[in-house]
Amino acid sequence: MLGYNRTCLQPTTFLLLGIPGLESAHIWISIPFCLVYLQSLLGNVALLLIVKRDHKLHEPMYLFLSMLSVADLMLTSSTLPKILSIFWFNDREIYFEACLTQMYLIHSLSTMESGFILAMAFDRYVAICHPLRHSTLLTPAVIVGLGLLIVFRGAVLLSPHPFLLRWLSYCKTNVISHTYCEFMALIKLVCTETKIRRAYSLIVAFLTGGLDFILIICSYVLILLTVFSLPSKAARLKTLSTCVSHVWVILVFYTPAFFSFLTHRFGHHIAPHIHIFIANIYLLIPPMMNPIIYGVKTKRIREGFFKFLKIKCA
């Protein structure tokens, strides 16, 4: 087969098919994909500029949101240009090393996103359950430390992934039925035993996204217990309103993430094009929606967006 190194059965290139079964619709699918990508770039860059310029937004929640925006920008920019080149120019080839690099970036940046969302949940927990200690617990040094720890965790725990796949024999095919390179799509092409590698990937997924989600749920249980102990309904509603934006971000991020993760491993009866479409939604929608959610719910960010776009708020 073309693109193979016969001596070690490693391909020099992979072929990304895009969305199998929907090849004839690629050009039409590319239109919303491109628009969403542009919206993601505009929204996250604007959000970063707004937070940077407005010192009143230099609070833990918005600093963690800014870190999330940086991860969103890196994630979409490492995948969407190649996806669009497949849709527009039928440019399906990707070098083996580039494929491993893309896979590493996707998984490590997704892990960092999950960590930043957990940090935002911790901020809400402290602000609501221990309001008098909020400024002393979440100091600038602590915020920077948490951010670096989240980046370090994502970078280190996912660093073995490229090496786990680097020296394997890909004797089945070099065709990837996907729009981008990711661990499970590549492991399916290997003709040797992969149980240990799959187990490591599963353990890392649980120790990062899975554990993050459990801790987020625990934080919100404690938040709800505190909120419902407040004496007045108005106080309860006002306190809960500070969490609405973050709850939407959690739902937007984890819903397609868990669906994609579970269908890759257990959803063999699901049509491939549905799974791959959802996997693309996971990369596209959260980076686009996060700035919109906070822009709608936060007056200072909303006004900053209008200034950024040079539109006067009526």
TrEMBL record:
Coiled coil (UniProt feature): none
Membrane topology per record: Multi-pass membrane protein
Pfam families named among the record's database cross-references: 7tm_4 (PF13853)
Origin: domain of life: Eukaryota
Stored CDD domains: 7tmA_OR52R_52L-like
Subcellular location, principal: membrane
Keywords: Cell membrane, G-protein coupled receptor, Membrane, Olfaction, Receptor, Sensory transduction, Transducer, Transmembrane, Transmembrane helix
Domain G-protein coupled receptors family 1 profile: 43-294
Protein localization: Cell membrane; Membrane
GO cellular component, one term: plasma membrane
UniProt entry tagged with the keyword tRNA-binding: no
InterPro entries: GPCR_Rhodpsn, GPCR_Rhodpsn_7TM, Olfact_rcpt, OR51/52/56-like
Record field: transmembrane: 25-50, 62-84, 104-125, 137-158, 202-228, 240-262, 274-296
A GO term, aspect molecular function: G protein-coupled receptor activity
Chain's role: Odorant receptor. Putative odorant or sperm cell receptor.
Family stated for the protein in its record: Belongs to the G-protein coupled receptor 1 family.
Protein's recorded name: Olfactory receptor
Naturally occurring in which organism (per UniProt): Equus caballus (Horse)
